[in-house]
Amino acid sequence: MKLHLKLSLAAVSIFTLGFGQSNLGSITGNIESTFQYLNKDSLIGANQPESKALLNSYANIFYTVGNFKAGIRLESYMPRIQGYPDRYDGTGLGMRYFGYSNGFVDVTLGNFYEQFGSGLLFRSYEDRALGYDNNMDGMRLIVRPYKGVVLKGVYGSQRLSFQEGKVVKADGIVRGADAEVHLNESLKWMSEKKLDVVLGASFVSKFQKDDNSELILPQNVGSYGGRLALRYGKFTLNAEYARKENDPSEDNNFSYNPGQAALINLGYSQKGLGIILSAKSADNMSLRSDRSKTLQDVLINYLPALNKTHTYNLVATLYPYATQAMGEVAYQAEVLYTFKKDSKLGGKYGMPVNVNFSTAYGPIRHTSGVNPLDSNGITYTGRLFDQSSLQYWQDINVNITRKFNKNFSLIFSYFNIRLNNDISKVAEDASGIINSHIGVIEMNYKINKKHALRAELQGLFTKKDKGDWATAVLEYTISPNWFFSVMDQYNYGNSVPDQRLHYLIGSFGYVRESSRFMLSYGRQRAGLFCVGGVCRFVPASNGLTFTFTQSF
To answer: How many Cβ atoms sit within 10 Å of the Cβ of residue 153?
Structure first.
């Protein structure tokens, strides 16, 4: 009997026992379904699927009893909603695990998610909004042998896709180990020190057979790194370095160059003031369990994005930036300052001001003295934080929040975003840097204890791509159950008059305890949807979307 079937039967048996005798543990979980009925809209390039209707559903069920734990996830794509990977279809078991944990050991057999440090070497996670899931299938062991010491080990294969109701795994196998020591907890003489110190080290390797008849490919690829976290008073410092040995793949055109990455975060915080400075350098750090895959498939590691996550429509959806794993040097600085209450600028309630700056450049790759025809396959040498003049991205934004009374407040925001469309392709008919200026005014008005109104006015101005845009958003909330909203995104500055289109969408929903229903109808513009530097393309659509979520 296959391992996944045995685990599934064990989990089902435990669930049945738990339902029959409620004192033998607890069951938690959640359910989510998204239904779409789409129309053809030739003006925006939206097509109607053959089935007309689309459905994504999943249900997580987690059971714990004493030190034992188990879980399953059922998934259904009939067929998948717009923008999801084309390898998602059918109904079946997408995840299952069984485990045991106490204060000393935590062992999981089956599917699991895990992360070492910031993820430079290993991060297994799920983001359903992106249609991304690279969960591991195998074994995870966590041991806490001494106070302040955590040891982790992972071994297994990654999820690649979900076809005909079954999980398809990547060809390769991933093995990893991580150790972290909190010195202030482990060493008595440091327990009273003002300086707080955490040290960590990781090792990750992958195995994949050499199936290339033209090249001699390494079947085992190792990567390793270390990290440091310091906190002293109001200051914090986090630094991490990772190195990957030669790993020829589709991403690097089968180069035998090693890869490396470094991430540094420095922070300062006190009442009314917060400062964060960050720097990242990455070169050839795409690490996958299958060397033939591209895009977001079976990534073993994760490179955090050094740019602010935006939520306003025009800022977040038109020119988002995707992290360049093959090489970038990036910086970010952010200052949050609150003018004190009852001061001239702070007014009665105080006034928070947030200023953020981020940028990314291409790295310099030195080819002097390097012969690409040599048998070692090395094509260049690279150095950390050695940046070129080729700018990939820049974002300067300012947010000011002003509360006028207990019922009314305004948020004023300005964004200057520069995106190199030759590097992060988001516009079809533009080349080089797309420079855009965006202004947003957000109003929040509390009518009474139950009724509230929120409105947004947004404007984007650029001389490239499709020209200027405007967006208006109006939301009305009746607490605690009802909410209504309407949004219109208008491309009034398009150089082609017939393409000066409105993308109008209306929504309403109902919330009761842990149940949530939402219905929306309207147009959605084609573009990239990004979270944390990871993006997926969402095609244009015109139709109805119904979403139901339930937790228990």
So the answer is: 16
The tens digit of pLDDT for each residue in 107-164 reads: 999 999 999 999 999 999 999 888 899 999 999 999 999 999 999 999 999 999 999 9
Rounded Cα distance between 20 and 516, Å, is 28
Q: Which of 492-499's residues contact partners 24+ apart within 8 Å by CB, and which partners?
A: 492/467, 492/468, 493/461, 493/466, 493/467, 493/468, 493/469, 494/466, 494/467, 495/466, 495/467, 498/43, 499/466
Mean pLDDT of the 276-294 span = 96
> pLDDT digits over 232-244, tens only?
999 999 999 999 9
Expressed in angstroms, the distance from the first to the final Cα of the chain is 32
Query: Domain 310-552 class?
Result: mainly beta
Q: How far apart are CA 98 and CA 113, in angstroms?
A: 13
Residues 6+ apart with CB under 8 A from 98: 7, 10, 11, 68, 69, 70, 108, 109, 110
Give the distance, in angstroms, between the CA of residue 458 and the centroid of all CA atoms in the same chain: 25
Helix (H) or strand (E) holding 11: helix 3-20
Burial (Cβ within 10 Å: 0-12, 13-18, ≥19) of residue 480 = exposed
| 362 contacts 330 by C-beta, under 8 angstroms | no
Residues pairing with 259 in the sheet: 244
Q: What are phi and psi of 319, to 5 degrees?
A: -135, 65
Distance CA 229, CA 239 (A): 7
Mean pLDDT over 71-96 rounds to 93
Do 407 and 446 meet the contact criterion of CB atoms below 8 Å apart?
A: yes
Q: Considering only CA atoms, which of 455, 419, 450, 446 is closest in space to residue 434?
A: 419
Q: pLDDT of 346-377, one tens digit each?
A: 999 999 999 999 999 999 999 877 877 677 78
Q: Which residue has the tokens 């300012």?
A: 398
Say if CB 358 and CB 392 are below 8 A apart: no
Cβ neighbours of 295 (radius 10 Å)? 10
Q: Is the pLDDT at 18 greater than 50, yes or no?
A: no
User: Hey, what amino acid is at 210?
Assistant: D
Residues 186 and 149: their CA atoms lie apart, in Å, by 7
Confidence (pLDDT) at 3: 47
Whole-number Å distance between alpha carbons of 378 and 83: 38
* Delimiting residues of CATH 2.40.160 domain(s) in the chain: 310-552
What's the chain's length in residues?
A: 552
Both tokens assigned to 162: 């979900």
Residue whose token pair is 């208008």: 490
User: How many helices (H) and strands (E) in the chain?
Assistant: 3, 31
Residues facing 279 on adjacent strands:
264, 331
